[in-house]
Specification:
Elements: H1 13-28, H2 31-48, H3 113-119, H4 127-133, H5 162-199, H6 208-221, H7 225-233, E1 236-237, E2 240-241, H8 243-271, H9 276-279
């Protein structure tokens, strides 16, 4: 008599486990597999580094952002709805992409080359940058205001390790996202002032031009080319060179430069009778 039934695909458990490992390795090399792994790392980051009773702080783990991150898929538990917008119209969404600030026209009273160079540096597009930009509660910003100020910094010099270097890269991405979010909020307040005046039938730029000019003057009065060079190239504390302090100093001066250019362009458009809030976007 003959017996009927399915033929065993694997004769032993070891054969089955070996085949599964080969399948898993092959899947991990596919584009879909890499994307799944990135999403898993992002979820693990948020879960593992959650402060007890509070939001997440910056990580120093091996699953941190890489120095050259690939585009991150949006984890289901952490939707990020703040794509970068390079359009001249602030309400037109655009996919996240490296940003270069649109510089003001240099006709009269031109800005220093150093300001233009720093202002035109692109911003990151990493997962942590987007989280900070969206104001995610997963990012604990309680220790970040210390980096809103110019050097020198009181933060202790960290050990020279790979984990600390990764932490610095994560920190600067978060600070860039925080700066951009705060600038967008301030820009939105000025936009509402302008539109309120227009809605009342008066010149929406009345008083606003001088306010923006004064904001530019305040930042320009603190601009110090010599100090900038020392901060970025020779950042030291107690006679020791600190890479984290140097990187954060560069971030600080980059945002000072961006604000100067943004204020200059916004005020010039207001003064010429145009609506800068239709033509510009803090991006």
């Amino acid at each position: 008599t003959s017996t009927m039934g399915r033929r065993a695909k694997y004769l032993t458990l070891d054969d089955k486990m070996a085949a599964l490992r080969q399948q898993k390795a092959a899947y991990s090399r596919t584009e879909r597999g890499r994307a799944a792994r990135q999403a898993q790392n992002a979820r693990a980051y948020m879960k593992h580094h959650r402060k007890r009773g509070g939001p997440t702080v910056l990580t120093k783990s091996a699953d941190s952002e890489s120095p050259h991150p690939e585009p991150q898929p949006k984890p289901k538990s952490n939707p990020i709805n703040a794509p970068r917008n390079t359009s001249p119209h602030p309400h037109q969404n655009a996919p996240a992409s490296p940003n270069t600030l649109s510089l003001p026209q240099q006709i009269a009273n031109p800005l220093p080359t150093t300001i233009l160079k720093l202002a035109s540096l692109p911003l990151p597009t990493s997962f942590l940058f987007l989280q900070a930009l969206s104001g995610s509660p997963q990012i604990n910003e309680s220790d970040l205001p210390q980096w809103d100020k110019p050097p020198p910094y009181d933060s202790p010099i960290p050990p020279d390790t790979l984990d600390e270097a990764q932490f610095t890269r994560n920190l600067v991405d978060v600070m860039h996202g925080r700066h951009l979010r705060l600038e967008r909020e301030a820009w939105g307040r000025r936009k509402r002032v302008f539109e309120t005046g227009m809605g009342m039938g008066i010149d929406g730029s009345e008083g606003l031009v001088e306010d923006v000019r004064e904001a530019e003057r305040r930042v320009m009065n603190c601009w110090d080319e010599d100090k900038l060079k020392v901060d970025i190239e020779l950042s030291t504390r107690s006679g020791r060179v600190c890479e984290r302090h140097r990187v954060m100093a560069e971030c600080y001066w980059q945002w000072q430069a961006r604000r100067i250019c943004e204020y200059r362009q916004e005020a010039d458009l207001l003064a010429s009778g145009h609506n800068p809030y239709l033509q510009l976007c803090i991006d």
